[in-house]
UniProtKB/TrEMBL annotation:
It comes from Duganella phyllosphaerae. The chain crosses the membrane at residues 12-36, 48-70, 91-111, 160-179. Its cofactor is heme b. It is found in: Cell membrane. It is a multi-pass membrane protein. This is Cytochrome b561 bacterial/Ni-hydrogenase domain-containing protein. GO terms for biological process: respiratory electron transport chain. It comes from the Bacteria. Residues 9-191 form the Cytochrome b561 bacterial/Ni-hydrogenase domain. PANTHER family: CYTOCHROME B561, CYTOCHROME B561 BACTERIAL_NI-HYDROGENASE DOMAIN-CONTAINING PROTEIN. Keywords: Cell membrane, Electron transport, Heme, Iron, Membrane, Metal-binding, Transmembrane, Transmembrane helix, Transport. Belongs to the cytochrome b561 family. One of its GO terms (cellular component) is plasma membrane. It holds the Pfam family Ni_hydr_CYTB.
């Protein structure tokens, strides 16, 4: 297992960050929509399920900083064949994903008035932190006045922006894999070898294939 990346593949640590974040992000959505569709969120029973949503959200947020640091330190695979505009759009889309992984956990945490129970430990609600108490004393904030706009941002981004960003990311990966037939998707899949792999076959190689 090669932890660092190469010009041809992502390393094992980058893959671990990517797929753990993706699983936690998707899992958080599944849990919260289960509560919305099948439970009464005003009943105590829903808090147990919502706690799972909060746990997954905190996990996503906790992975962002080390993931970004590793991205800066690690070797990044070469760009796929394409125009300069395509490369710029791809980078913009990736930074959009990182922004989403910051905004959603941050607004979710600071807008929740209950602690998150991880079993062995708990994370206090933002309402109970020294930072919020300082904000209250300094700016005269009330929890109701603070929580309402944060909650709006969390729900608007989660309901309307997140789906667009994630779907575009998935569609782009499938386009590279199924249409361009390059290694953009493959090089992020778990268990792939780290040896050199061309990003795309040239025209002569495609004609020579049976």
């Amino acid at each position: 297992m090669q932890w660092q990346g190469t010009p041809h593949r992502f390393g094992a640590l980058a893959k671990l960050f990517h797929w753990t974040s993706a699983a936690a992000f998707i899992g958080a959505y599944i849990v919260v929509y289960y509560v919305i569709w099948f439970m009464d969120d005003e009943q105590p029973e829903s808090l147990v399920v919502l706690n799972v949503h909060w746990m997954l959200g905190i996990l996503v947020g906790a992975l962002v900083l080390p993931r970004l640091l590793w991205k800066l330190l690690d070797v990044q695979p070469d760009d796929a064949p394409g125009s300069k505009l395509e490369h710029q759009l791809a980078r913009l889309a990736h930074w959009g994903l990182y922004a989403l992984l910051i905004v959603m956990p941050l607004t979710g945490y600071v807008g929740t008035s209950m602690a998150t129970d991880f079993g062995l430990f708990s994370v206090p609600s933002f309402r109970d932190t020294g930072l919020f108490h300082w904000m209250t004393a300094t700016f005269g904030l009330t929890w109701e006045g603070f929580e309402a706009p944060v909650d709006v941002v969390h729900h608007v981004v989660g309901k309307w922006v997140a789906w667009v960003v994630v779907v575009l990311h998935v569609v782009a990966a499938l386009f590279h894999h199924l249409v361009r037939k390059d290694q953009v998707l493959v090089r992020m899949l778990p268990g792939q070898q780290q040896g050199p792999a061309p990003l795309a076959l040239n025209a002569r190689q495609r004609q020579a294939r049976p």
